[in-house]
Amino acid sequence: MKNIKINAVILIISSVIALAVFARHVYLTTNSGLEAVQQRFVQNFPKSKDVKIKESPIAGLYEVISSTNLYYTDTEAKLLFVGGIYDPSIQRDITVDRKRALGILPKETSKEGHISTEGRPTLPTSVPADALEKIAQYAITLHDAGPEAPIIYEIFDPQCGWCNRLYSESKSSGLNATIRALLIPNISDKNMIQDVFCSNEPLQTIENFAQRRYVISGVKTDCDTSGLQKIYDFYNQYFTNMPKDPNTNIRRMGTPILYDGRSGALISEGYLDQPSLNKVLDTIHKAK
């Protein structure tokens, strides 16, 4: 009987040791994998500074966390994935939830679907209309409704999902307004914005991005980027409450943001659906 008890104790101790060894092996394997992805990411994206690599809810996909955004990359760290991961079982965009947990986005209030603006930098309620006119020639016209139609200036990032949704809806609905996009690196990095600006066919490139193809229609080798710099100067001059990105020295703000070309008044901070946008346009027509 005594031998049985001793053997049982030995078996339990052996099992505990085996489990501990296995747990340590899993821990070391997991972390060495993350470290390897981190090293490959730094090699493949040397301009990306101070990013952290974490596992994501999808096997083989890793979070790329910076101070201002959350991306995803593959095991080889050769690709960047921009967008959200949606969990239909809870009907939530878990990427948005993750950004809130990391402090990249503000916390959600108790009101469903509403993001609190408390503590966020405030946008100017208007900018000088003549300042918009000075950089109009460097904007990309997303939708042209003719010379008599009101003009909307949109602060636009080609990889912004809400920007692309607004673009697609405006095009399909035949919006009675001309929309001119002013490029800003919000989700995209500065090099991506420059490539879109210097594209042989900027509007086709934006169409590609809206359809999630992320194909740039050729980049001019002799592109004059002084116009893009004038847009950046406009941001830095009039959006002084917005924080500057230390890597680009450009003020970052959420996209899309809409301003009225005639008065310079702020139309919307963020996406605006077509019925709401049409109501604003009606007001602009009546005031004309």
UniProtKB/TrEMBL annotation:
<dbReference type="GO" id="GO:0042597">
    <property type="term" value="C:periplasmic space"/>
</dbReference>
<dbReference type="InterPro" id="IPR051470">
    <property type="entry name" value="Thiol:disulfide_interchange"/>
</dbReference>
<feature type="domain" description="Disulphide bond isomerase DsbC/G N-terminal">
    <location>
        <begin position="35"/>
        <end position="95"/>
    </location>
</feature>
<protein>
    <recommendedName>
        <fullName>Thiol:disulfide interchange protein DsbC</fullName>
    </recommendedName>
</protein>
<dbReference type="Pfam" id="PF10411">
    <property type="entry name" value="DsbC_N"/>
</dbReference>
<dbReference type="InterPro" id="IPR018950">
    <property type="entry name" value="DiS-bond_isomerase_DsbC/G_N"/>
</dbReference>
<dbReference type="InterPro" id="IPR009094">
    <property type="entry name" value="DiS-bond_isomerase_DsbC/G_N_sf"/>
</dbReference>
